[in-house]
Structure formats: C-alpha cells, structure tokens
Amino acid sequence: MTDRNVPAGIPNDTISAQIVAIAATRDMASFEALFREFGPRIRAYLLKLTRDGQAAEDLMQETMLAVWRKAGQFDPTRGQASAWIFTIARNTWIDAWRKQKRPALDPDDPALVPAAEADAPTLLELKQRGAALHEALKALPEEQVELIRLSFFDEASHSTIAARLGLPIGTVKSRIRLAFGRLRAALEEKK
C-alpha cells in the first residue's frame, strides 16, 4: 500500500532520512529537496481547504517552516513521513482558521475601559460603610464572623464550609442566615 501524499518515485525511507538529516545537522540540501517535493502538494492541499491562493501559499510557507523547526520531533517508527508533514499542514490551517474566527479587539469596548475614579464624597461614604461593617462584625460571636468570612469574603460554598468545619450542611446554612441577620441588625443600629 502506498501513501497518496508521497510523490511518485520517492520512497518514504528517503523522506524520513531527509527529515532526520534536518533534525540532526540542519542539512539545508535535505530541506530544499523536501521543500521542492512537498511545497506544491501542500499548497494544493491547502488551496482546497482555504479556496484562497495567497492564503494557501502563506500557510504552505508556515508548514514548511514548522517542518524545519519540528524535524527533531519526527519519529519514523510512528508513521509515514508524508503523513507527518501533512498533519503539520492541517494543524497550521486549523490554527489560522481559528485566529480568523476571533473577533478583532475593539479598544473602545466598554469592558476594556477602566472604571472612573470615585469622587471624594463617594470614597468617604465607602470608607464609612467599611468602618461600620468592621464595627458590626466585632459585635458578632467569633463563630459567626468565621462563617460570614468563609461564605461572603472567601466565597466558599456551603458544602465546602460544612466539610471544613465538620458540620452538617443544614446547620451551616442556618448559622449563616442567623449570622447575616445579626449583622444586618447591627448595621441598622449604626445608622
């Protein structure tokens, strides 16, 4: 059985030897021979995939450059050399296709614009709220402060908190509700 990607008259052993020579000594003559034989076939293959002559030419060049760079990764015992080269071509095309499908970065996208600096009255209000929260937390028992810290500040799930504290999940939920209710009441008193 012959590989349909292998040019007529060139045995797979010769192609494998060329790739091994490129890997071992960066043999330019072997690379040129490989390029002459596979360049047109890869271009034709990529032209079928892209339907764009310039894109096929560019991707063929990228493929052959990858063959040069990755020659040391080729293992003749794992398969045909031509299959290895065409796999690189296919992967190069897939990478190019994925890049093409990504939307262009819009520098005016609101998600990329940094938030405006808060003005002095807003900063003062935030600072006062933070101080009130710290004072209200001091009024709670340490166990309830720990539950609030784990749940709201560390964003641990109820099951994680239950496992960490060795409590049933229902107990954790009811204690968090109780702690949150006491915290709300303490904050209301501060107003």
From TrEMBL:
Q: What is a single Pfam family found in this protein's UniProt entry?
A: Sigma70_r4
Which protein, by its recorded name, is this?
Answer: Sigma-70 family RNA polymerase sigma factor
Arranged from A to Z, the UniProt key words for this protein are: DNA-binding, Sigma factor, Transcription, Transcription regulation
UniProt family annotation: Belongs to the sigma-70 factor family. ECF subfamily.
What does UniProt list as this organism's lineage? Bacteria, Pseudomonadati, Pseudomonadota, Alphaproteobacteria, Hyphomicrobiales
Residue ranges of every copy of the RNA polymerase sigma-70 region domain listed in the record: 34-102, 136-185
Question: Domain of life here?
Answer: Bacteria
Gene Ontology BP term (one): DNA-templated transcription initiation
Q: Which organism is it from?
A: Devosia ureilytica
The record, for InterPro entries, names: RNA_pol_sigma-70-like, RNA_pol_sigma-70_dom, RNA_pol_sigma70_r2, RNA_pol_sigma70_r4, RNA_pol_sigma_r2, RNA_pol_sigma_r3/r4-like, WH-like_DNA-bd_sf
What GO molecular function annotations does the UniProt record carry, in alphabetical order? DNA binding; sigma factor activity
